[in-house]
Automatic annotation (TrEMBL):
GO molecular function: thiamine binding; thiamine pyrophosphate binding
Protein's recorded name: Iron(III) transport system substrate-binding protein
CDD domains, per database record: PBP2_Fbp_like_1
Domain of life assignment: Bacteria
GO cellular component: outer membrane-bounded periplasmic space
UniProt source species: Paraburkholderia sediminicola
Record's keyword terms, sorted: Signal
Cleaved signal peptide residues: 1-21
């Protein structure tokens, strides 16, 4: 009996020691909730000695948290954050240059231009208008085809969109309008659009969710959530405005101050792998690994051609000024 107890205690102690021996990686992310588990499960299966600990929030909140912690960083890796935000962190000298294993197999334009890169792209996401056919018919709303259409008086109070302060999708909307239309005309456009916006919410996916449930007939969002809701049977159409789509990339970067550089590099290696890109391709029409993306229902074949020119460095350098101006103009409609 004593021997059995001794063996059991030894096994238990060994299990505890094994668990304690795992390297803990603190990973800040803005990934959609349903995407977090597949990446974690696949990575930890291949690296059983490393455990991912997520800290998840919207893009704006994660970016603000990282900047606030600049002098006392906590995160080891930033994963699934907007490339525009990672560019901002890089301008602050916060990211570690690292070329992950297999990097040469990725589409080069979807990562940081430095050699070695300071962040590596995962996927492209672009602006999409979610339009509820049923609610629109009830309210006698025509189907818009352009950004300009959304400024028509018929849509007054019918639109919800993400706040650029808290949402990466909201920020790519604002910066794309400023870059595509020009500074003055971009703000004029947003002044006109604001007259029709009922509320600015703190999530890029929520406007499409609200359109899907019919709370608002039109939500300015991105294709991930629209595609998911369509698959669930929501009566929404995905509209890709003819002037072109603002876009950003989810990407991975290693914090220069990480205390677990070897484990962090292994996670960056995994995110650049074909396996990780195959996970990503479940939801995104454009991924970093060539030939992995597949046709997604509701996404046009010429999707990549609709993406407007996007200067991530400009977006990063002008972020504070743009958000300050935006809040002065429209912040009174932000979700509390």
């Amino acid at each position: 009996m004593a021997l059995r107890c001794l063996v059991a205690a030894t096994v238990t102690l060994g299990a505890v020691q094994f668990a304690q021996a795992k390297t803990q990686l603190l990973v800040y992310t803005a990934l959609e909730d349903e995407a977090m588990k597949p990446y974690k499960d696949a990575f930890e299966k291949a690296n059983p000695d490393i455990e991912i600990r997520w800290v998840r929030d919207s893009t704006g909140a994660v970016t603000a948290k990282l900047l606030a912690e600049k002098n006392n960083p906590r995160a080891d890796v930033v994963l699934g954050l907007a490339a525009s935000s990672l560019t901002l962190l890089d301008l602050q000298g916060m990211l570690m240059p690292y070329s992950p294993k297999g990097f040469d197999s990725l589409t080069r334009k979807y990562s940081d231009a430095n050699t070695p890169p300071h962040w590596v792209g995962m996927d492209v996401w672009g602006a999409t208008v979610c339009y509820n056919r049923v609610e629109a018919e009830k309210r006698h709303l025509p189907k818009p085809t352009s950004w300009e259409d959304l400024t028509k008086p018929v849509y007054k109070g019918m639109i919800v969109m993400p706040s650029p302060v808290s949402s990466g999708t909201g920020y790519l909307d604002v910066t794309s309008w400023l870059q595509t239309f020009g500074k003055d005309k971009g703000w004029q456009y947003m002044d006109a659009l604001d007259k029709n916006v009922a509320q600015y919410v703190h999530s890029g996916s929520k406007p499409c969710t609200l359109a899907g449930t019919g709370e608002f007939p039109i939500g300015i969002s991105f294709e991930f959530r629209g595609h998911e809701l369509q698959a669930q049977g929501a009566p929404i159409d995905l509209i890709f405005p003819k002037e072109g789509l603002g876009w950003d990339m989810e990407a991975t970067g290693i914090m220069k101050t990480t205390r677990q550089p070897d484990a962090a590099k292994k996670l960056a290696d995994f995110m650049a792998s074909k396996e990780a890109n195959e996970i990503t391709a479940q939801w995104w029409a454009i991924v970093a690994y060539p030939g992995v993306a597949k046709k997604l229902s509701g996404i046009p074949d010429n999707y990549s051609e609709l993406l407007v020119k996007n200067d991530f460095t400009w977006s990063a350098k002008n972020r504070d000024a743009i958000l300050e101006d935006w809040q002065k103009r429209y912040g009174n409609k932000e979700q509390k």
